[in-house]
Amino acid sequence: MAKTAADQPKREMRVLCLGLFRTGTYSMAQALTTLGFKNVYHGLNSLGNNADWAVLDNAADATFPTLPTYRGPGKPFTRDEWDQIWGSCEAVTDVASIYGATLARAYPDAQVVLIERDYEKWSKSVNTVLTSLWGPVPNFFVGVVEPLLGSSTGLTNRKMLLGWAGVKDEKELRANLRSAWERHHEEIRAECEKTPGRLLNYRLGDGWEPLCEFLGCDVPRDEEGKPLPFPHANEAAALRRKIMDQQVIMLKNLAAKAAPWVAVSAVAGASWWWAMHKGF
């Protein structure tokens, strides 16, 4: 069983890495871990963890007015509610970016790192995310497998992206992706302007120096005193493996859950065949 934040030591949120998914967030998570931040949360941590997705689902209902499930103005997601998932974390990346400015308000003492990637490169990369959520295979898992197993991972992922972009379906999401991308960065910068020095605008390839200076950390070095290479993780490959592994687990669980019904159906079918062919 996956551990929840309640099972782990309470920690103070120190860094909100609010660059969008597919902006090197997996590498940034590893970099923050190398710098000593505890329990750095990335979206890959959440796959298969239904408790986390229940929190993220409720957060979407509290954050995005365009969702039909929006719980209404004046009812923001509170810090205590966020702590259900991130109360044991000192830093968050990736999936947290969907809630950008909302998280910056919920954790006012946390420093904010905003990774910005060239839009054309980002949109090409993010297509892998969209195709993992919409299409024949994702539709089967979201519409058939997940409900049977009591999971909402795919459905909540869809809800968060649609709410973030302020659209109602995948077609609108793709059509409005650039405006949502621009609004994301504008909203976070506007929120952080309220506290001078809170925001680091970071671009892929900037390396350790600006990040360490901003966070008050020393550049990590090896035993010979040479700077360690900045992490460069293959997030796309890790995501594909994680999704495929999770889908295999879900299918195995579904097969196990359906086994008694398959056995009953087989016995009933055999009995019917025997009766029909033996003249009972």
UniProtKB/TrEMBL annotation:
Gene3D superfamilies: P-loop containing nucleotide triphosphate hydrolases (3.40.50.300). The chain crosses the membrane at residues 254-275. Pfam families: Sulfotransfer_4 (PF17784). This is Uncharacterized protein. Keywords: Membrane, Transmembrane, Transmembrane helix. It comes from the Eukaryota.
